[in-house]
Amino acid sequence: MRVGLFIPCYVDQFFPNAAIATLELLEKLGVAVQFPINQTCCGQPMANSGYEHLTGGCNELFMKNFDGFDYIVAPSGSCVLHVREHLRSDEAPVKARDIAHKVFELTSFLTDILKVESLDSRFPYRVGMHQSCHGQRGLHLSQMTELVAPQFSKPGKLLGMVKDIDLIPLSRKDECCGFGGTFCVTEEAVSAKMGQDRVEDHLEHGAEYITGVDMSCLMHMEGILKRRDSKVKVIHIAEILNAQL
User: Fold this and answer.
1) CB burial string 139-176: b at 16+ within 10 A, e below
2) Could you give the count of Cα atoms lying within 13 Å of 104 in the half-sphere of its Cβ?
3) Which terminus in the chain has less CB density within 10 A, N or C?
4) Which residues of the chain register pLDDT less than 70?
5) Where in the chain is the domain with CATH 3.40.50?
6) In this prediction, what percent of the chain has a pLDDT beyond 70?
7) Global pTM?
8) In this predicted structure, what is the pLDDT of residue 181?
9) For residue 210, which of 125, 90, 114, 109 has the smallest C-alpha distance?
């Protein structure tokens, strides 16, 4: 299979280690990965702010960069959900739809497409896993606790394959961190308080690291941790799944 690596702009600029870990992990699993060098923002920030009608250039560039791949994989649930639901093209609507359906969040690709059952990784730390809203409620990476339904978690299943990891329980395991993209700008106080509550749950259960599938959520919580002078660190799930100590 030919897999295109889709790296969101904020990961590229602020958290390149998450992108590198994603590439290395996929290659270790035998996937031939290509990185289209001209990719830029997928257009989600503009769409979230009410300007989706101005994202045509982002859509066309995304299609140009990722046309021809069997799958497109990204270490970001929110960006994947945006592309899957909002990629549009007036000139090539069928192509846009086909490309959108090929876009996968990393943990979903590993569990649903590659069907990974074991990993050669080790991470001997106490880790709290944050279930991001886009991943859980949009991409169905895990079950929502308010539903009377069998519980599952694709990121949790993969973390369970990591040697020596200590996954801690949380009191509210699928609570929103408050980031919400532009929400953290327009509703700063509410966003910060939600983030403080989310971080506190991890701290109360002794986490050394907080992980998840979205560096945007982790970035939000990292800022709160740093303001508290906490030693707890955030780390993208790809970095854990790729870790060999």
Assistant:
1) bebbeeeeeeeeeebbbbebbeebeebeebebeebbbb
2) 20
3) C
4) 245
5) 126-241
6) 100
7) 0.94
8) 79
9) 125
